[in-house]
Design a protein that fits this description.
Elements: H1 3-16, H2 19-30, H3 35-42, H4 46-58, E1 62-67, E2 70-75, H5 80-94
Antiparallel strand pairs: 1-2
Length: about 100
């Protein structure tokens, strides 16, 4: 595969290959939240949350909506939420249990 064709895979999976971003995604599965709420849920400082939200937003994993003076982040309902459901189904049906440990 040519390098320019691999770049989208690197960007997409590279975005997911970070425990901070995975934890932010997991927090946002429950409901949309602002940075303070995400920080409280994940126990990460606000600058870490903001930095990782920037990458998630750049890649379209999350969207932001203004709500008064705050910004509320939510998962992309069209692609990321269904992808998480599919990934969980795949893991349950096809991955060896010892890989989950």
């Amino acid at each position: 595969m040519k390098a320019e064709l691999r770049q989208p895979y690197r960007t997409f999976f590279g975005t997911l290959a970070n425990q901070y971003r995975l934890d932010v995604i997991e927090a946002l599965r429950e409901k949309p939240m602002n940075v303070t709420e995400i920080s409280s849920k994940t126990k990460f400082n606000q600058s870490t949350v903001s930095h990782n939200l920037q990458r998630l937003q750049t890649c379209g994993f999350v969207f932001v909506k203004p709500r008064g003076k705050e910004r509320v982040y939510g998962l992309n309902k069209d692609t990321i939420k269904p992808l998480l459901v599919l990934m969980n189904k795949h893991m349950k049906n096809y991955c060896k249990h010892n890989l989950m440990d």
